[in-house]
Design brief:
The chain is mostly beta strands and 254 residues long. It contains two helices and 22 strands.
């Protein structure tokens, strides 16, 4: 692919994040991903708008449409650029950060849920990333990518799974594993999340596990040999850079 670095764009109607490999677009409101274009031909990978995220608050379902106050901003570093969404109602605020790397066909995604109400709430069944993928003949690859299934609910400590066809696909990961719902129970939806629940006192937040999506072409075995390993190394380097910046900032304050 080309050498275009990660970029963001925010207007009154839409929000986008792109690099040389993909472009992810959101509606400004209600803040759902409406398009995922990949490759030089801008191939559309989404079957429909994404639910974006979802979870339960005291057993009541919450998603972007329930959090009607939305703000958008962006963030930049030497490693890439990101889009931040802030979704608010009277009970909770949800902050999402989707960060595209400059030199990798991948994004990282973080979600933080904070109780801004006056009483404790129980948060459960959080879907951190939801991708309604539409390409033909996609199947799920689990158990170190060796097992292929048309659809699967996979609760595992594996750090990554894949969704692919003969032309390529996506490696989807969570560092400590979690709940992977791949075309099951919804036949066109892949979800990464957690089945853990938390009681959040007023003013307290829950930073969910970071997830990632890495695009590859061709056989997944070839992607694992070098490109995906390079991506993981880039993420490690970025984390080290962030820790060094934080340490230097703390030393200045002291």
């Amino acid at each position: 692919m080309g050498t275009m670095r990660a970029q963001t764009f925010i207007s009154a109607a839409s929000v986008s994040l792109r690099n040389a490999w993909f472009e992810r677009n959101w509606s400004f409101f209600p803040g759902e991903t409406v398009s995922l274009l990949v490759g030089a031909e801008n191939t559309e990978w989404l079957a429909r708008p994404s639910p974006e995220f979802c979870f339960l608050v005291d057993e009541l379902p919450i998603g972007p449409t329930e959090l009607a106050d939305i703000e958008w901003s962006d963030v930049f570093s030497p490693f890439g650029a990101g889009i931040i969404g802030r979704y608010v109602d009277a009970r909770v605020v949800v902050n999402t950060e989707t960060f595209a790397l400059h030199e990798q066909p991948a994004w990282l995604r973080r979600v933080v849920i904070t109780n801004i109400g006056s009483v404790p709430v129980t948060v459960s069944r959080v879907a951190i990333e939801t991708l309604p993928l539409s390409r033909p003949n996609l199947c799920a690859r689990v158990e170190q990518f060796a097992r292929a299934e048309e659809r699967i609910l996979w609760r595992s400590d594996e750090s990554a799974v894949a969704v692919a066809n003969a032309e390529g696909g996506w490696i989807l990961g969570m560092a400590q594993g979690g709940a992977y719902a791949l075309f099951e129970p919804q036949p066109d939806l892949c979800t990464l999340g957690t089945e853990e629940s938390r009681v959040l006192p007023p003013g307290k937040g829950w930073e969910l596990p970071e997830v990632h999506a890495f695009h590859f072409t061709g056989a997944i075995e070839e992607a694992l040999i070098r490109p995906y390993a390079d991506f993981l190394e880039t993420v490690r380097n970025m984390r080290q850079w962030q820790q060094e910046r934080l340490r230097a900032s703390n030393e200045v304050e002291d």
